[in-house]
Design a protein that fits this description.
With about 475 residues, the chain is an alpha/beta fold. It has two domains: about 120 residues, Leucine Aminopeptidase, subunit E, domain 1 (3-Layer(aba) Sandwich), CATH 3.40.220; about 325 residues, Aminopeptidase (3-Layer(aba) Sandwich), CATH 3.40.630. The chain has 15 helices and 19 strands. Strands 6, 7, 8, 9, 10, 13, 14, 15 and 17 form a nine-stranded mixed beta sheet that branches. Helix 13 links the parallel strand 14 and strand 15. Helix 4 packs parallel to helix 5 and helix 13 crosses helix 15. The chain is elongated and about 80 Å long. The model has no long low-confidence stretch (mean pLDDT about 95). This is Leucyl aminopeptidase. Belongs to the peptidase M17 family.
């Protein structure tokens, strides 16, 4: 039986500084000659013989006279050129031999990303078979808050673990169990509304989407903190998406274990917030369902009435994520928190527009938008603002219902989905929606192929800058 969550990742921590830590000397590509001049002649000649050029992430081991490694060089790339590879210095994790390492001559502006990338690169998913972690360990660079970064990475590891788990072991039951384990770890309260109780408690869209599966749909409601601003995180928890009766082709169904990436990301962000002990009243809402095919499945052209009272014509059962989010957002909005953040692996249109690595976000709040953009830049967590474009509102208004869950034509799909969700948040001034991918298609520094969190660090920075600080309130 695979282990329950959260998995322990003891490798995702820094080591204590000591005289035994080996120097990892950072070399800007456009200052290679000066850097080599500062080395002993034997080491400089060795680096030149190895063809070391200072390219971003390039390493060169430096031996002593007996052939023992006593230091290493790592390239920073061009100091004045925009970085083309995020977490480039994390490449060293898999190339350096076992031991404790400490950056030398690392520019202050690069320390946060270098330290974060190192820990993220150390992550391994090991639920089903052993996965040996790299043996090179890092001393946290001076001026970087080690405990804060370790909290970031613990949250990211939880997100990755949840997304990486296949749907046979990560259905609504298991997602609830993971949320309960997280709540127990931090003394949070949790309530779950399941199955037909969803109808009795006025969550008709969550029930409709999940009722075809033998794995009962549910709404997970986690609460933590008794003082401070009220922040609600809402995450799409579609544990597998066949597309329903508008069934997906096999080529589109292959990655649908990640369709609960929004839920995984908000749980990871909650793990960070609670781990840091922020002065917040945190609420996490996750509609957890499996969009399956059976005689009980909801149908194309069904008209469903939401918790908000808005009627929705279902023109594609594969646009189910916005349906379950609608009921959860309506519940969140009723409490009028200081801010609502919604995260979902929602549309292919967002991937076509921006690719897998750059999630769009939507908000009408200019202060929050600025804080999110700033957080994305400073936290190595890229985002791109997209508009709630009012002229497209008519596209989500069908003839026989208030809303259409899948407008014909396919144009502006991410925007129309965001507009749909905004209809369910009318009482809360600060609302932001994130259309994330939740998956790393090919291995990159700090991001192995597989599940990945997106936006959590940027949201945390925005919460601290624009909500906890009272700015713009």
């Amino acid at each position: 039986m695979p282990a329950a969550y959260p998995l322990d990742h003891p490798e995702l921590r820094f080591v204590t500084a000591s005289d035994a830590a080996l120097p990892l000397i950072v070399v800007p590509q456009d200052h290679l000659s000066e850097a080599l001049d500062d080395l002993p002649t034997a080491h400089a000649n060795w680096a030149l013989a190895q063809g070391f050029s200072g390219r971003a992430g390039e390493t060169c081991l430096l031996p002593d006279a007996e052939g023992h490694v006593v230091a290493a060089l790592i390239g920073l790339g061009p100091a004045k050129a925009p970085a083309r590879v995020r977490f480039a210095l994390a490449k060293a994790v898999s190339t350096l031999p076992e031991g404790d390492w400490q950056f030398h001559h690392l520019p202050e502006a690069a320390r946060f990303e270098a330290a974060l990338g190192w820990l993220l690169e150390t992550y391994r998913y090991s639920r089903y078979k052993p996965a040996e972690a790299p043996k090179a360990r890092l001393v946290c660079p001076e001026g970087v808050d080690a405990a804060r970064l370790e909290a970031f990475v613990a949250g990211e590891a939880l997100t990755r673990d949840l997304i990486n788990t296949p749907a046979n072991d990560m259905g609504p039951d298991e997602l609830e169990a993971a949320a309960r384990a997280l709540a127990a770890s931090f003394g949070a309260a949790i309530e779950v509304t399941e199955g037909d109780a969803l109808l009795a408690n006025n969550f008709p869209l969550i029930h409709a989407v999940g009722r075809a599966s033998p794995r009962a749909p549910r709404l997970i409601d986690l609460r933590w903190g008794e003082a401070g601003p009220r922040v609600t995180l809402v995450g799409k928890g579609v544990c597998f998406d066949t597309g329903g009766l508008d069934i997906k082709p096999a080529s589109s169904m292959g990655l649908m274990k990640k369709d609960m990436g929004g839920a995984a990301t908000v749980l990871g962000l909650a793990r960070i917030i609670m781990g840091l002990g922020l002065r917040l009243q945190l609420r996490v809402l996750i509609p957890a369902v499996e969009n399956a095919v059976s005689g009980a499945a909801f149908r194309p052209q069904d008209v469903l009435v939401s918790r908000k009272g808005l009627s929705v014509e279902v023109n594609n059962t594969d646009a189910e994520g916005r349906l379950v989010l609608a009921d959860a957002l309506a519940l969140a909005d009723e409490a009028r928190p200081d801010a609502i953040f919604c995260m979902a692996t929602l549309t292919g249109a967002a991937r076509v527009a921006l690719g897998p690595d750059l999630p769009p976000f939507y908000t009408d709040d200019e202060v929050l938008a600025g804080a999110l953009a700033a957080g994305a830049a400073t936290q190595a967590d890229p985002l791109w603002r997209m508009p709630f474009w009012a002229p497209y509102e008519t596209l989500i208004e069908p003839a026989i219902a208030d809303l259409d869950n899948a407008p014909l034509g396919g144009m502006a799909g991410s925007i129309t989905a965001a507009l749909f969700l905004r209809r369910f948040v009318t009482e809360t001034a600060r609302f932001a929606h994130f259309d994330i991918y939740g998956w790393q298609p090919a291995a990159a520094p700090g991001r192995p192929k597989g599940g990945v969190g997106q936006g959590a660090r940027a949201i945390l920075a925005a919460i601290e800058a624009a909500i906890l600080s009272g700015e713009g309130a």
